[in-house]
């Protein structure tokens, strides 16, 4: 498959998707955000470039790599977790050749426009299986492009808007973050969370969940946080002030942590009973705490392994600085990092999603959240640090273990 043609198609697809999102918000129609269904619609309309691409064979090795990532992602889905809670097992069939037959038998929905919409049709499987594989390859390239947007430091659309807007140096020129202030306000109660830039009359979605955004806005209003900067979503920028939200239902659950941070050991490592390589590392010095999560099924972006890190600076009573970032390791660096908490990831420049400075957030600042115990939802009050970690990290069980004194 011609990579240049594929890149051109991805660009066209992205622009179509952005326009659909924009039209939806302008019209204020309560419908789902456009998804990969757009690809099926383009197939139905016999888009010329799409048909040119699916008639070209794709690289099987690259497709297998994407399929493995897709299955790993599916294993972590909310549906899978819910099934495990209910004792329901879902069988995942390992990837095998012939790939088209494996897709037809076990992952039909990846290519349903080609295989029959309401009942399976094996015509194309018998006559041109490579076309099925090329369609799935394009589907997954689009899927992971959208899933991994947080890992990219490049923001061409935001750079176009703010390229010469801020003085140098600034938190924008260094980290690509937009300061929240009287000109650029955070809309924490909107979903997705966004900022509105009054000077430019633009609304920009940001990389932050609604519960955390609400707490940070409250802390700013109370004077506990005086400097907050956030990462915008480069594909979701709208003219004017827009507060249209879509509704979604989500329930968050949220060596032992102590609010006397100086009592904590210099290095703490927690790991899951059923998987030694799912770990939570906590490093402490006289002024800062660093939390980093490592996963057995680690996340990748290109040739790098991606971890999440939350770093805070503190005094005896307050958190004075806080940020969240993605760290990029080469495979060699990550192998060392598994056992060495001081090993660093230098494969790429790290990407921050938000940054708080000049703050005085009380260490015991209470946050309300929900968790599920024995299939029952209950409201609990947790420390701010736990609330932030729970908003990003995957290993909720390790967080609960570390903060068990407060839950």
Structure characteristics:
globular, 16 strands, 407 residues
Task: Walk me through this protein's architecture.
With 407 residues, this protein is an alpha+beta fold. It is built from 15 helices and 16 strands. Strands 1, 5, 7, 8, 9, 10, 11, 12, 13 and 14 form a ten-stranded antiparallel beta sheet that branches. Strands 2-3-4-6 form a four-stranded antiparallel beta sheet. The protein has a two-stranded antiparallel sheet with strand order 15-16. The radius of gyration is 23 Å and the shape is globular. It starts with a helix and ends in a 5-residue tail after the last helix. The relative contact order is 0.10.
**Structural class from helices and strands?**
alpha+beta
Q: How many helices does DSSP assign?
A: 15
* Strand fraction: 25-35%
Report mean pLDDT, rounded to a whole number. 81
Amino-to-carboxy terminus distance: 53 Å
Radius of gyration over all CA atoms, rounded: 23 Å
| Parts with pLDDT < 50 across at least 5 consecutive residues | 28-36, 246-254
The largest pleated sheet is described as: 10 strands, antiparallel
Residue share in helix: 25-40%
Question: What would the principal axes of the Cα set say about the shape?
Answer: globular
Number of strands: 16
């Amino acid at each position: 498959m011609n990579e240049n043609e594929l890149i051109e198609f991805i660009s066209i697809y992205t622009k179509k998707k952005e326009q659909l999102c924009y039209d939806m918000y302008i019209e204020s129609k309560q419908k789902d955000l456009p998804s990969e269904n757009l690809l099926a619609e383009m197939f139905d309309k016999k888009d010329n470039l799409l048909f040119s691409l699916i008639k070209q064979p794709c690289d099987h090795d690259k497709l297998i790599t994407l399929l493995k990532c897709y299955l790993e992602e599916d294993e972590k889905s909310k549906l899978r977790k819910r099934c495990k809670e209910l004792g329901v097992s879902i069988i995942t069939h390992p990837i095998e050749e012939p790939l088209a037959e494996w897709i037809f038998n076990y992952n039909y929905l990846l290519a349903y426009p080609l295989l029959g919409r309401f009942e399976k049709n094996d015509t194309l499987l018998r006559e041109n299986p490579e076309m099925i594989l090329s369609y799935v390859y394009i589907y997954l390239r689009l899927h992971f492009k959208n899933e991994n947007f947080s890992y990219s430091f490049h923001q061409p659309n935001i750079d176009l808007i703010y390229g010469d807007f801020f003085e140098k140096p600034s938190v924008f020129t260094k980290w690509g973050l937009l300061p929240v202030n009287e000109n650029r306000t955070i809309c924490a109660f909107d979903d997705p969370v966004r900022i509105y830039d009054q000077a430019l009359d633009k609304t920009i979605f940001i990389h932050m969940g609604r519960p955390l955004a609400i707490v940070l806005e409250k802390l700013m209003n109370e004077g506990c946080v005086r400097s907050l900067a956030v990462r915008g979503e480069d594909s979701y920028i709208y003219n004017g002030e827009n507060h249209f939200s879509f509704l979604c239902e989500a329930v968050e659950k949220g060596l032992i942590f102590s609010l006397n941070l100086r009592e904590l050991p210099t290095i703490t490592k927690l790991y899951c009973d059923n998987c030694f390589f799912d770990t939570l590392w906590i490093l402490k010095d006289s002024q800062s705490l660093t939390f980093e999560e490592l996963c057995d099924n680690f996340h990748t972006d290109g040739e790098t392994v991606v971890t999440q890190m939350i770093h805070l600076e503190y005094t005896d009573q307050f958190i004075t600085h806080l940020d969240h970032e993605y760290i990029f390791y080469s495979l060699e660096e990550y192998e060392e990092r598994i056992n060495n908490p001081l090993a660093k990831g230098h494969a790429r420049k790290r990407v921050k999603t938000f940054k708080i400075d000049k703050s005085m957030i009380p260490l015991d600042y209470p946050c309300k959240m929900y968790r599920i115990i024995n299939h029952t939802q209950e409201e609990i009050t947790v420390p701010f640090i736990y609330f932030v970690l729970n908003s990003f990290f995957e290993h909720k069980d390790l967080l609960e273990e570390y903060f068990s004194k407060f839950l």
